[in-house]
Structure to design on (863 residues):
């Protein structure tokens, strides 16, 4: 009986690698498994090697895994590029002249050659070869055939009964081949009873959380890996009286959304690093004019056009410091796909409570990959519109010209919507007095700067950081604290477990979800005098630099970094940890 | 009914004699004569001398950044279709850094008005060449005269699909406020370019220059081609409504019942969560 499986399909881009991977992942989710996926692809539409990796486990997992136990090769490169990940006795399924099994000399894996294309063509379409391969994969795990049948029915019913039937036949063919040629390798994957599971990507969860927060407008410009946020909301918003607009450029993307927020609508824009660069002037305007705005920044490999389809976490300083001058802002970074939903919703609350930009950071790994997560809980985050006034509340002020930038104890001014009879007001990107009129007097300037920059000092999400100590080790007693952000969550968790199992030092894991303002006091307590290692996907160790800026930890902190465009492997974290500690 | 006094905002810092006073008065007069109240409008401006108009008219204003008044204004209208939305800026603001947005707004046809104060020069930065400065124009930033030809704003909006295109002159406030009334009432994107002399830095495009050279167009042309031919024939020195067409605006075409305003603090919509979550269930 198996309790987990690591599987990969590779091939030429445009050959249905993604849909093949997704189909197998859904099959495993339906079998009750927790599945994490990772896609590798290139910045082109057709051609070039791409692959889809997944790990399925009985208990919850957050990481697509280091190894490969079953590899479907739909092109020749799939094997050479991934050979190093194959475990002992791995099964490699490949196109061959005739069906047969061989173990290449000096190798630890075996190859099942199948004339996939020929069998598929005989069944009616060469693309069915992916289904034959999925049939082989499922047979190796002795998965019940009806699960696949159901999913195929769901997906292909629109294309007609014949297509559904042919796909199912292709899967069955895969079963037959496996039973004939690899009967020894079949190991049953134990079924689990989880049925309350969602299978969702980070971009979808972000869009979903935004929808639930009452966001009704998104304006953006297409960019990898953020486009799906826009595409997903474009499908969902019209049904609730909202809309998505793909506008002419990144600058328009943020400017439209700022305009919509100014009018009283919850609105957002989504982008990736290069787009955020273009948006930064308007980011400053939102800060100065105190207009709420949520900006989703899904990071990819930089700088410039960099590695547009690869993973990196190198916009940290960009998100925290960008724009000229000094503005209030909040930067959040979900650890997991589940948290992407809740933090997206919370972003809209914080933007309106503090009347400032909120940047929700994602990275390609978090955005584009799917994971199995529990159903969402609508009670965990509510809707809080802050000091947005109703028509009646505006009337109570009894002003012919409403003081938009009224100085209050908490620095947050009550905000009318334009269109309210007694709420006529001026919003301004220039330095201004309480009435919004341009005012450059020094005492006004000082007062307004203090108002804007101090209002977010205590801004805090409900769960300022995630702390995982896996087992008995209290992080305050751990020798070493591993600190990460975003999609490295799962790899760091697994690395920590492995390191603790070796038993020399004790390790705990801290995953920061609020990067700015930093929860300094809480961090100070946790850091103490222990060794701190940041594990991050950038060259300069931006998370380490951030922590060093705010906390007196210069002598106790180091970084493990990786900036080649791929996510961390658990193996490499563990090896590097041994060098650092 | 609002009066001109009700629409008076902050004290102006424009130079005495600046054409922008007339443009502002024209907007105020149009609002009064059409019978609107100040709170029904949102006036979105960019920066430069023209950018101050959102402060000088007492209405809802948003003084934004260089060249971005048009995208912000479109977002305001998308967020609240009940507002009357005016974007206003200068020729440097709108036809330099904001030109791309202007072209796209023309083809998109969101229901709003774009009013540009065109003084053929950068005023607030003290007299540099603008995208509207004529060929051969001499400024501090083009000391040996401007080698480039000016952007042609009204043919640009016409060729890019704007459904209302007009040109006014600050020296003729009666014609100007009539144009602005029609522009504000037009359903769709209306573009009004207004010759508004800069009395401090532009010694060429003066009130006298316009008085001598402008030709009045009495009625809009039937086709875009005719309007463009006439504008070219007069080297752009025309006033009046040049082209008007009735076409569904962007929001009508979307056909969505917008409800972006009614959200209140409280719990998440449980029924919506359950409905959408189904799409991700195993």
């Amino acid at each position: 009986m198996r309790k987990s499986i690591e599987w990969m399909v590779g091939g030429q881009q445009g050959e249905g690698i993604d849909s093949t991977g997704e189909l197998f992942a859904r099959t495993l989710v339906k079998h009750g498994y927790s599945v994490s996926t990772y896609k590798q692809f290139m910045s082109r539409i057709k051609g070039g090697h791409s692959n889809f990796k997944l790990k399925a486990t009985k208990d919850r997992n957050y990481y697509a895994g280091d190894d490969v136990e079953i590899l479907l090769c739909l092109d020749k490169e799939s094997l050479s590029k991934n050979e190093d990940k194959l475990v002992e006795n791995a099964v490699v399924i490949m196109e061959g002249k005739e069906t047969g099994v061989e173990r290449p000399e000096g190798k630890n894996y075996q190859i099942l050659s199948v004339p996939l294309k020929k069998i598929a063509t005989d069944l009616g379409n060469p693309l069915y070869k992916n289904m034959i391969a999925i049939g082989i994969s499922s047979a190796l795990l002795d998965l019940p055939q009806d699960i696949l049948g159901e999913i195929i029915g769901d997906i292909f019913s629109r294309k007609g009964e014949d297509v559904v039937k042919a796909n199912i036949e292709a899967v069955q063919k895969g079963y037959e081949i496996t039973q004939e040629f690899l009967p020894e390798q079949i190991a049953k994957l134990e079924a689990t009873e989880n049925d309350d599971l969602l299978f969702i990507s980070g971009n979808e969860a972000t869009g979903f959380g935004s929808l639930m927060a009452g966001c009704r407008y998104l304006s953006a410009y297409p960019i990898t890996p953020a486009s799906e946020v826009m595409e997903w909301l474009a499908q969902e918003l019209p049904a609730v009286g909202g809309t998505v607009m793909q506008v002419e450029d990144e600058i328009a993307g943020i400017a439209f959304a700022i305009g919509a927020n100014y009018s009283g609508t919850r609105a957002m824009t989504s982008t990736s690093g290069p787009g955020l660069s273009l948006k930064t002037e308007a980011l400053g305007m939102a800060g100065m004019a105190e207009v709420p705005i949520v900006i989703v920044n899904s990071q990819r490999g930089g700088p410039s056009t960099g590695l547009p389809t690869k993973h990196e976490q190198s916009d940290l300083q960009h998100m925290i410091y960008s724009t000229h001058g000094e503005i209030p802002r909040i930067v959040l970074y979900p650890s997991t796909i589940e948290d992407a939903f809740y933090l997206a919703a919370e972003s809209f609350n914080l933007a309106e409570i503090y009347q400032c930009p909120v940047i929700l950071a994602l990275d390609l790994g978090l955005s584009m990959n799917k994971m199995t997560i529990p159903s969402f809980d609508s009670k965990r985050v509510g809707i809080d519109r802050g000091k947005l006034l109703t028509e009646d509340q505006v009337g109570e002020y009894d002003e012919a010209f409403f003081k938009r930038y009224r100085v209050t104890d908490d620095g947050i001014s009550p905000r009318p919507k334009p269109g309210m009879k007694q709420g006529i007001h001026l919003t301004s990107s220039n330095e201004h007095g309480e009435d919004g009129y341009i005012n450059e007097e020094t005492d006004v300037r000082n007062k307004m700067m203090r108002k804007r920059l101090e209002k977010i000092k205590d801004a805090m999400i409900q769960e300022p950081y995630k702390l995982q100590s896996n087992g008995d080790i209290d992080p305050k007693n751990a020798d070493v604290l591993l600190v990460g952000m975003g999609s490295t969550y799962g790899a760091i968790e697994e690395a920590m477990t492995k390191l603790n199992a070796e038993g020399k030092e004790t390790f705990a894991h801290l995953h920061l979800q609020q990067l700015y303002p930093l929860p300094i006091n809480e961090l100070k307590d946790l850091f103490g005098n222990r060794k701190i290692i940041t594990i991050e996907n950038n060259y300069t160790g931006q998370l380490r630099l951030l922590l060093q800026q705010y906390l007196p930890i210069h002598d106790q902190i180091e970084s493990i970094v990786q900036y080649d465009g791929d996510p961390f492997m658990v193996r490499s974290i563990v090896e590097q940890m041994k060098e650092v500690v | 009914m609002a009066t001109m006094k009700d629409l008076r905002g902050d004290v102006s810092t424009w130079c005495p004699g600046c054409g922008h006073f007339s443009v502002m008065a024209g907007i105020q007069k149009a609002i009064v004569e059409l019978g609107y109240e100040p709170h029904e409008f949102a006036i979105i401006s960019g920066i430069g001398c023209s950018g101050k108009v959102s402060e000088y008219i007492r209405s809802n204003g948003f003084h934004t950044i260089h060249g971005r008044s048009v995208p912000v204004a479109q977002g305001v209208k998308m967020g609240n279709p009940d507002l009357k939305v005016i974007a206003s800026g200068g020729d440097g603001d709108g036809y330099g850094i904001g030109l791309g947005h202007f072209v796209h707004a023309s083809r998109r046809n969101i229901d709003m008005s774009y009013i540009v104060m065109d003084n053929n020069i950068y005023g607030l930065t003290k007299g540099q060449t603008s995208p509207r400065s004529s060929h051969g124009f001499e400024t501090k930033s083009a000391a040996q005269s401007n080698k480039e030809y000016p952007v042609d704003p009204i043919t640009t909006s016409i060729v890019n699909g704007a459904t209302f295109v007009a040109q006014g002159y600050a020296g003729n406030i009666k014609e100007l406020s009539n144009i602005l009334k029609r522009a504000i009432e037009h359903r769709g994107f209306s573009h009004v370019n207004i010759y508004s002399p800069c009395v401090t830095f532009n010694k060429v495009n003066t009130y006298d220059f316009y008085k001598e050279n402008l030709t009045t167009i009495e009625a809009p042309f039937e086709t875009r081609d005719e309007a463009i031919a006439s504008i070219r024939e007069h080297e752009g020195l025309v006033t009046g409504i040049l082209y008007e067409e009735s076409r569904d605006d962007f929001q009508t075409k979307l056909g969505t019942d917008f409800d972006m305003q009614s959200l209140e603090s409280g719990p998440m919509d449980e029924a919506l969560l359950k409905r959408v979550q189904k799409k991700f269930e195993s």
